[in-house]
Amino acid sequence: MLIEADTVEIPREAFEMFATILGHMAAGRAVSIVPDHAELTTQQAADMLNVSRPFLIGLLEAGEIEFRKVGTHRRIKAHSLAAYQRADDRRRRQAADELTALNQDMGLI
Asked: How far apart are CA 88 and CA 93, in angstroms?
């Protein structure tokens, strides 16, 4: 049975995102797609960062991640969590670059 397929053009960014998602799935990692405006519970946000809920609450209370309170519950916007992740990734890369430079200066590499 021969099926003719229509050609669909998608933006490059969408293709790259799809490829990244498939790569994670192929490696056996879970993938979640969360709308930018979604509000997350502290447990959902902690799970996305792969940290404990108490650690996340410490980040919230220290002002590292923007949140709001609904009664006694904290809610984190997905875009605030993503902004924290990007900033944390930059800090980690910078620290790794500094360690590499230090090792080179000391002749260890």
From this structure: 9
Query: How far is the C-alpha of 63 from the C-alpha of 45, rounded, in Å?
Result: 15
The per-residue pLDDT for range 37-52, each reduced to its tens digit, is 899 999 999 999 999 9
Question: Which letter does DSSP use for residue 107 in this model?
Answer: T
Query: pTM to 2 decimals?
Result: 0.69
Q: What is the pLDDT of residue 78?
A: 95
What tokens does 33 get?
């797609």
CA R_g for the chain:
20
CA distances from residue 74 to 22, 54, 101 in whole angstroms, order as listed: 32, 12, 41
- Around Cβ 71, how many Cβ atoms within 10 Å? 5
Work out the average pLDDT over 60-78.
96
Is the distance from CB of 30 to CB of 50 less than 8 angstroms? no
One CATH from 1.25.40, 3.30.70, 3.40.30, 1.10.1660 for 35-91: 1.10.1660
